[in-house]
Amino acid sequence: MSEPLDFYFDFSSPYGYLASEKIDALAGKYGRKVRWHPVLLGVIFKATGATPLTQAPLKGEYSLHDFSRSARFMGIPYAQPANFPIATQHAARSYYWLHGQDCALARRFAHTAYRAYFAGGRDISSPDVVLDLAASLGADRAALAGALAGQALKDKLREACENALKIGVFGSPYVVVDGEPFCGADRLPQIGRWLESGGF
Amino acid sequence: MSEPLDFYFDFSSPYGYLASEKIDALAGKYGRKVRWHPVLLGVIFKATGATPLTQAPLKGEYSLHDFSRSARFMGIPYAQPANFPIATQHAARSYYWLHGQDCALARRFAHTAYRAYFAGGRDISSPDVVLDLAASLGADRAALAGALAGQALKDKLREACENALKIGVFGSPYVVVDGEPFCGADRLPQIGRWLESGGF
Hints:
Two copies of one chain form a homodimer.
Chain A: E1 5-9, H1 14-20, H2 23-29, E2 34-38, H3 41-48, H4 59-74, H5 89-101, H6 103-118, H7 127-136, H8 141-149, H9 151-167, E3 174-177, E4 180-183, H10 188-197
Parallel strand pairs in A: 1-2
Antiparallel strand pairs in A: 1-3, 3-4
């Protein structure tokens, strides 16, 4: 029962950001680690036919309100980005490239990118912004820029999205604990109970 | 600040049922009452273009799993109905008719209908089942049957759905506390915090 949790998220997902601020500590409380898997909701929604939350009539306006209220409820800094939602393939590919070199650096990058976008007013759809953030953590900017231009990293992210769809990921955040799926930052209390009790 | 909360729900909504088991006690803890408003998600989804949860690819299968897990998490009896989702106009209209006679009876009917459907294996899309449930609580079966066949009650429910859409209701449950909207049974903790603090 010491298998890591799997945490699927899109760097443009507000609820993914909120979960990212809590998931490691929650899992750690029960002696568990978390594997992070950035994916592209655009690819997933194309496969499932889903609509981005903020484009849905009535629900869209409510969601924008709920993002920041949920952040306050969870004690997490949040400032609705002016450009939203955004394409996050550069951030996601950078994560996988960094992960191939240094897992801890990749985790720091994920937090840094999420916070830059959802609390710092940075537009992480820009490759330059992503490279700057990675470089600020000590990554090799030129090497990452080269990798982002190559095919291998594109294939890596495509495979990550395909794998996510195969296991049933339809939104962000999506967390799997010992085969049990939980979707949404609002399922963190259920995840805690599940980890505590081994199911309920 | 002693205005009642407004609780919008569809009798075929699992998360509406879960909220219905908690909302009065939660509000009561802070000296507040709740106004219940059954509506038809079918009418609301027609206006907003939304898809019923269980018809969405991947999300549908997950949702069926999440309904019963969320019920266990909240300590509420739940048995996924074989016939789901269902048309709930008879249950909703009966609620409004009963409410015109006796508010407390209408509330007991709402609980009885919800529990009959989500825990008792009864198909409350049937007018006969709805009439039986109302009669079991002491309502005049023949008078209710007559009212269900009339136009006034149909108009009443149509107006309730139109009013709900006007204030932004796009799903069930949808709770409004002093103008602040909360959608989903998973927002009950936020509602509690809001009632406790007068906002956050």
